[in-house]
């Protein structure tokens, strides 16, 4: 914290509440954060004559653009099968926002609050693909004793349960319109689509914990509480993911199994089931993960 003088008085300058997240993610090998921008940044980049069109998430879900972009992306890049195409659409639009929420809660104890009017999805018309999502003028929920509690971009909540609820409700309000539109167009089940989101929320707390050599079960417990709050907010799914300890004596010997298949194998049958797929037998999964532990170069 620094100080500045203004008419003879000294005022504390509270650091950007997202700086802690940027710092915490710096040592991670995998940290897909969205671009953290201001509205002024977006206006500067949003050239009407340029190749990139910036969609607010809420507008993309409501103005009829989502089906058009989904079909264009699927035609240009695949996969041909509608189910992996639907989960791939979620991956390219929601991966970074999910990571921001999960990783921030786990690593900093702060909850970035997504919004349908503050999540932007840049569509590259020349390449027919989405670029890195942007979270614009992001507000952050914090606890009363957080050093950033006085920052104008923060919302102070009473306790950790309230923090998780705030994160979950904002996430649900942002994603539900997109998932509704994707469900209606792709005919993929909402339980499948929300299942992908819930699985990813869990994995994006577990991954940092594993990489940093921390307690995987503790990270999983927090992820489960966040998942519970998202379900309470309105998300639907058939089955939740589960922790999979395959080498408990090793600090990175715990992985997880998704509750919902992403159906990538339908788009690429030669690839087969993913290592985290619920359709893969645990014996094969344990063998693959043990080989990766012995030789990380084998990991995909």
TrEMBL record:
GO terms for molecular function: 2 iron, 2 sulfur cluster binding. It comes from the Bacteria. This is Ferric iron reductase FhuF-like transporter family protein.
């Amino acid at each position: 914290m620094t100080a500045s003088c203004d008419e003879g008085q000294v005022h504390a300058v509270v650091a950007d509440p997202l700086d802690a997240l940027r710092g915490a993610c710096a040592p991670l090998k995998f940290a897909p954060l969205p671009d953290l921008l201001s509205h002024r940044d977006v206006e500067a980049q949003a050239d009407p004559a340029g190749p990139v069109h910036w969609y607010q998430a809420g507008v993309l879900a409501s103005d009829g653009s989502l089906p058009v972009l989904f079909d264009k992306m699927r035609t240009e890049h695949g996969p041909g099968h509608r189910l992996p195409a639907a989960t791939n659409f979620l991956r390219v639009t929601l991966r970074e926002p999910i990571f921001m929420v999960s990783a921030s809660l786990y690593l900093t104890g702060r909850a970035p609050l997504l919004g349908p009017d503050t999540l932007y999805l840049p569509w590259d018309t020349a390449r027919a693909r989405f670029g890195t999502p942007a979270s614009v003028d992001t507000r952050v929920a914090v606890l009363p004793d957080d050093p950033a509690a006085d920052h104008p971009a923060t919302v102070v909540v009473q306790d950790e349960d309230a923090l998780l609820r705030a994160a979950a409700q904002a996430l649900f309000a942002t994603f539900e319109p997109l998932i509704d539109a994707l469900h209606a167009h792709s005919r993929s089940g909402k339980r499948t689509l929300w299942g992908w989101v819930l699985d990813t929320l869990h994995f994006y707390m577990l991954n940092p914990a594993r990489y940093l050599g921390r307690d995987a079960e503790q990270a999983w417990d927090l992820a489960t509480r966040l998942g519970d709050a998202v379900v309470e907010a309105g998300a639907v799914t058939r089955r939740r993911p589960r922790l999979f300890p395959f080498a408990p004596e090793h600090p990175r010997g715990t992985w997880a199994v998704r509750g919902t298949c992403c159906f990538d194998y339908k788009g690429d049958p030669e690839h087969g089931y993913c290592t985290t797929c619920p359709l893969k037998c645990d014996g094969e999964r344990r063998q693959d993960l043990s080989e990766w532990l012995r030789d990380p170069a084998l990991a995909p």
